[in-house]
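sorry to bug you again but im stuck and you know this stuff better than me. what follows is a protein written twice so to speak, once as letters and once as structure tokens for the fold. mainly i need to know what kind of three dimensional shape the backbone takes. anything you notice is useful, everything is just below:
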Amino acid sequence: MQRTSFSDMRCPVARSLERVGEWWSILILRDAFLGITRFDDLQASLGIAPNMLTRRLRALVEAGMLERRRYSDKPPRYEYVLTPRGRDFRPVLVALMAWGNRQFAVEGEAMQLIDEITGEVVEPVMVDAKTGVPIDRSRHTLHAGPAADERTRARVETYAQHRALQRAASDTSSP
């Protein structure tokens, strides 16, 4: 079965998934953030088949998330290091970790984000870079951007209508 490509969609979520939407890709990026960059080490960490790891690494290099660097000539060996685009994925991984800890870690948190100055566990939140205000559903809403196509505009309009109905319902239910 042929996989659908999202590369031509004007949706930033779809285009992001085109690059990292396969679970092995996200786990490879997680390991690269942890400093695991060599093929054999990635394979051991992930328990992934070599042919699958080769395909995922090639795709991440082609997407500009990782750079393939030679670290040994005899035999030729490579490591896969994060590019600036790959490093920019860190907040997504931190958000996935925090969400996973809140929603699925019934046995307790297996990974935590720690403030290296205070030593305290950090609970990440998304904030507006300009104001520092936490992103909140009641204050912030999605709108179609200048490059949105008709599908995206229709999707966002449906979202706006849904939010308006929710607000109207909550206004009539409050005393």
Q: What stands out?
A: The chain has a mean pLDDT of 89.
